[in-house]
Specification:
The chain has helices at 88-99, 122-137, 144-154, 158-163, 234-238, 252-260, 265-271, 277-280, 285-296, 319-326; strands at 3-20, 26-46, 50-55, 105-111, 166-170, 175-180, 182-183, 187-190, 193-196, 215-216, 222-227, 273-274, 300-303, 310-314, 332-337. With 339 residues, it is an alpha+beta fold. Strands 1, 2, 3, 4, 5, 6 and 12 form a 7-stranded mixed sheet that branches. The protein is globular and about 55 Å long. It starts with a strand and ends with a strand.
């Protein structure tokens, strides 16, 4: 069976660093949220080997799921030049094949729409979707804890994308507790129909996003993602972190709002927070400029992850004002919503 699934990006609604670990990594508290900007993964059965091809397109106009990109496209194309063995999708497939002694092969095609090095978790989402899809395709019998262990080795954000939706992420980001959502199935597009990966056929009206996100938020927020056209290396950001902080931010307020269903564009202005902005804005003033402009246009604005993308949460009536303001600059931007 040939499968095609959409793999969503994420934003960090909150991110605070709590301590530095003996292994050099940092523990954090974060609230991650999937959004409707997606890559696309296609899977075809093969006899033995794993084959991966990458298409670096940054435009998918007219799609109800993958928002149209405005501006430059260069930021999404660098991933296509990676050697196959270094691509996280290939690593995910190889890890499953080796861990569960799978004799079958797979041909994978990855269409990139999410910019790389952008703080949106595109690679992690692709890896998680690959794990979920191949568990079904290869008939792997595995406990959730086994898959989480494999996911954690692939990347800190990968476990989040095994569930998606809205989640509290702790540790290095690999301890995931869903906050708000409803249970869902892994939905894939199979022979022009939508089917649950577990074999239950669904109607074509159902979304084929959630290829890696098995939960969906029970609230919808409008969001605009703005990328300056360059990436920020995550390791270089964390190297600048000096602990302890004198003004540590607590996650309780935003967590409570989300759990009560009271989180919205207005409250986001007060409770969204990202500690890593302190260590990015000095070296990348254009990222701060994006945040400030989004705020001036009426958004709750915040850098996602370690950058370079900044997102704005807004109420629908100001969308055209935001678009007009962003079109004055040479940035990529996408209008989307939480999923």
């Amino acid at each position: 069976m040939n499968l095609t699934i959409k793999t969503p990006a994420k934003i960090n609604l909150f991110l605070e660093i709590t301590e530095k670990r003996p292994d050099g990594y940092h523990n954090l508290e974060s609230i991650m949220q999937t959004v409707g900007l997606c890559d696309e993964l296609s899977f075809e059965p093969a006899e033995k080997d794993i084959a991966l091809s990458v298409i670096g397109s940054g435009r998918n106009p007219g799609s109800p799921v993958i928002p149209e990109i405005h501006g430059r496209e260069s930021a999404v194309n660098s991933i296509a030049s990676l050697p196959t063995e270094q691509n996280i999708v290939f690593k995910a497939a190889k890890a499953l094949k080796e861990n569960f002694n799978v004799q079958k092969g797979i041909k994978i095609t990855l269409k990139k729409n999410i910019p790389s090095g952008a703080g949106l978790g595109g690679g992690s989402s692709d890896a998680a979707a690959t794990v979920n899809a191949l568990v079904k395709l290869w008939g792997i019998k595995a406990e959730k804890s086994e898959l989480n262990k494999i996911a954690s080795k692939l990347g800190a954000d990968v476990p989040f994308f095994l569930t998606g939706g809205t989640a509290l992420c702790e540790g290095i980001g690999d301890i995931v507790s869903p906050l708000a959502g409803r249970s869902g199935e892994l939905r894939v597009k199979s022979e022009n129909k939508y089917a649950a990966a577990g074999g239950i056929e669904n109607s074509a009206e159902q979304s084929d996003v959630a290829g890696s996100a098995l939960r969906a938020s029970n609230f919808k927020l409008n969001a605009v993602l703005v990328n300056p056209g360059f990436g920020v290396p995550t390791p270089s950001v964390y190297k600048k972190v000096k602990l302890p902080f004198t003004n540590t931010r607590k996650i309780d307020k935003i967590k409570n709002l989300i759990e009560k269903g009271s989180f919205n564009a207005e409250s986001a202005k007060e409770v969204c927070f990202n500690r890593l902005e302190d260590f990015v804005f000095g070296d990348y003033p254009e990222i701060k400029k994006i945040k400030d402009i989004l705020a001036s246009l009426g958004c709750a604005s915040l850098m996602s992850g370690s950058g370079a993308t900044v997102f704005g949460i807004y109420d629908k009536p100001v969308e055209q004002k935001i678009k007009a303001g962003l079109e004055k600059h040479n940035w990529n931007f996408w209008f989307t919503e939480t999923i």
